[in-house]
Amino acid sequence: MTITALCRTALLSALLLTPEAFARQIERTFNASPGGTLEVQTQTGSIHVQTHDRNEILVDIEIEGDDEDDFSLEFEHEGDDLTIIGEKESTGSGWWGGNRLRASFTITVPRTFDLDLHTAGGRIETEDLKGDVYARTSGGSIIIGNIEGDVDLRTSGGSIRTEDIVGEIDAHTSGGSIDVTFAKQLTQDATLRTSGGSIKARLPEDVQIDLDASTSGGRVTTEFNVDGRIKKRSIDGEINGGGPRLTLQTSGGSVRVDKI
């Protein structure tokens, strides 16, 4: 038998012996009034949190993989708080790379709610929320919008995009760019840092802030008139008389501060 024929035979045998790709969907409902906290800790998967005007939490989790026992879920519900923990039961390895688990968390919470979200392997998204957002991901981007509360964001492997945040912002990424839009006057200080990309911030023309923008690997530009020190790679000064401090720092790209 030729080498080509042997390869074809081995491939066919592997396909016949490989379990059919597994997919399951978990749907749960929990009573919860506004003011509670949702905590998600998962070793893999994307997290999307949306809101509604009902006193309940709707959970929809979709899991795809080779074995239904490869991913376990734990729900802890106490009062208005819900904790969801997703863990891989094994890390199998084989000729075809072992387990290839994918998970997607879609969760709907009351509009007034705090979020504490952690994933080791996916994107985090949320919008239209009155509450604080604490988000961590090692393998994806973070996208949030229309948030009335403080946000603390970290990603090691993706970009960060925020829009219409009313509250303090602290956002860091090691592997991507940051794109942020402030539709209103800042009420709290905001800090945006990246080690591997550019930063773009858009603000109202009449915004009043203290701007501290710097880069080690590009240029800093702005459409605003700044009263302070302006250099090729840094700007430090007041815009429209000053106000909350906006700090923008990157080691690997440019910084732009534009008008909406």
Report what the structure shows.
Residues 151-257 form the DUF4097 domain. InterPro entries: Toastrack_DUF4097 (IPR025164). Keywords: Signal. Pfam families: DUF4097 (PF13349). Residues 1-23 form the signal peptide. The chain has 260 residues and is mostly beta strands. It folds into two domains: 19-138, no CATH class; 141-260, no CATH class. It contains one helix and 23 strands. It has one helix at residues 3-17, and strands at 22-31, 37-42, 46-52, 56-65, 71-78, 81-88, 102-110, 114-119, 124-130, 133-137, 142-148, 151-155, 160-166, 169-173, 178-181, 190-194, 199-203, 209-215, 220-222, 227-230, 234-239, 245-250, 255-259. The strands form two sheets. It has a twelve-stranded mixed beta sheet with strand order 5-6-2-8-10-12-14-16-22-18-21-20, with no helix packed on it. It has an eleven-stranded mixed beta sheet with strand order 1-4-7-3-9-11-13-15-17-23-19, with no helix packed on it. Strand 20 (227-230) and strand 21 form a beta hairpin. The longest helix is centred in the N-terminal third of the chain and has 15 residues, at 3-17.
Main attributes of the structure:
mainly beta; twelve-stranded mixed sheet; eleven-stranded mixed sheet; 23 strands; 6% helix
In a nutshell, what does this entry contain?
Residues 1-23 form the signal peptide. Residues 151-257 form the DUF4097 domain. The protein is mainly beta and 260 residues long.
